[in-house]
Structure formats: structure tokens, C-alpha cells
Amino acid sequence: ASCDEAHKLGLHVHGHIPAGIRPMDAIKAGYDEITHINWVIMQAMPDDVIKVSNGIMRFEGPGRYARNVDLDAEPMKNIVATMATKKIYSDPTMVAFESLYVPENGDLSPALAPFVGTLPPTTERGFRQGGFAVPKDLTRADYRASWAKLVQLLTKMHTAGVPIVAGTDGSGIEIIRELEIYHEAGLTPAEALGVATIAPARLVNQDQKTGSIKVGKTADLVLVEGDPSERLSDLRQTRLVMMDGKLMDADALRTAAGFSGRPK
User: What gap in Å lies between CA 206 and CA 210, rounded to an integer?
Assistant: First the structure.
């Protein structure tokens, strides 16, 4: 009923999946978008995970079980097909789960590693807390296998035509790694850039006004050294920023924010 009322007001319904239900139930109830890829693979999680998925189990469940999920069988085959047919958006926030499942304690996540030595010391120490604590009956390799399955799920979603929009659930500097993961999942660099620009504009019906560089559209601009349409890592090499018509030096902005030098 709440989804129906939201739609009557012209609102877009998205978010986490409430405890006790699966993503397909949320889609049937009227969800337009599922935030975070862990909620998509929740379709295949055991009932004891679903019952308490509003707590830590929303991370531990996929970490424990995703590695053994068959993406080409039910129920995952159906949820992906449904999202594609109904154009249910996914904001997968892949970097959030890479940072949970992949790093050992003391390691920086791949999203932050290129910035090592440039971050404020207290910030870098905070980022070195490692990944999600591994239960005694599992290993870090198990979690990494579940992470690999989430990347495979993203590939399946993209191939099927599920619309993707980029997000991180974290800091802005992590968005570049997010796009790199999309590329690893099968998107071209140009497609990954579109997921972070025109796709969000299209989602909120603003694509005629913004979201791409075109005469008559509104845009803030960044000038990078390199070609992100070929190498997404070049996005870390920002040299100039134009915002609200004002041109700003990227190195000066980094210094003002407490960064020391350029990322790798």
C-alpha cells in the first residue's frame, strides 16, 4: 500500500528489502529499484537469513552462502529476468561488499589502495581496519569466493538488461573503483561512465537537462589526464574541475581537503 501511495505522488520507491521478505516480494509490492547487490542475491538465501536480514545477517548471509548459489538456476534466474523485464533498477554499490569480503585486517580495500600515502594519516588508519570479521567456520577465501559470485551476478544482470546506476554507500573517491568493477563484470569503460552519468539522470527523468555533455544541457565538468573511455583508472588523474562555471585546480582542491599529492 505504501508503494502505491508513493507512486500516486510520483515518487520513486527504492531501498533495502525489509526483514522477512525477499526481493521478488518487494518488486511485487511496487519497488522500482533495489539498493545494494546483497539484497538481490537474498532471493537465494536460506529462510533463517531472511528472517533477520535487517541486522548483521544482511552481510554475513551473502558472505556465507553466495559462493554456492547457482546463478543459472532458480530462484536467481527468475529474479534477474524479472528485474530486466520490469526495468527494476539496481544500485549495486559493489565497493561496499568488496571492502567487506576481500581485504585482510590491515589492508586497504582496492577502492582506497590507489590513494595510499595521500590520505590524511588518521583517515588512512581508519580505512585499514580490514574486511568483515570471518566466522570461525569460514575462511577469508570463502568470503572472497562469495564476492566473486556477486561480480558474476552483476554480469548476469547487465547481460539481461537490468538497468544499473552507480553508487558506493561510501566516500566519493570510491566511485572510480565502483566503475572499474562494472568493467570487470563486462561493461565497457564507456558503458560504465554512462552508468554514473546519463543513467542516474534518466532514472529521475532529468536526462533531457543533464547527465551528458551536450549543447543546452547543464553540467559540471572534470578534465582528466588520460582517456577514461579507454582506462577508467584515468579518472583518478583529475587536473581541473569546472563547477557552476568556476574553474578550479584539482591539486589545490586535494591540498585543501588534506590530501598530500596525487593518487596512483
Answer: 6
Q: What pTM, to 2 d.p., does this model score? A: 0.95
Pairing state of beta strands 33-35 and 89-91? parallel
The whole-angstrom distance between residue 35's C-alpha and the CA centroid of its chain comes to: 9
User: In this structure, are residues 23 and 42 in contact, taking their beta carbons and an 8 Å threshold?
Assistant: yes
> For residue range 190-210, what is the model confidence (pLDDT) as tens digits?
999 999 999 999 999 999 999
The answer to whether the beta carbons of residues 170 and 149 sit under 8 Å apart is no
71 near 154, Cβ under 8 Å?
no
How buried is residue 149: exposed, middle or buried, by Cβ count under 10 Å (0-12/13-18/19+)? buried
DSSP 36: S
Report the helix count and the strand count for the chain, using DSSP H and E: 13, 6
* Eight-class DSSP state of 187: -
Q: What is the mean pLDDT of residues 12-38?
A: 97
**pLDDT tens digits for 239-261?**
999 999 999 999 999 999 889 98
Cell, residue 71? 546463478
User: Which grid coordinates belong to 233?
Assistant: 583508472
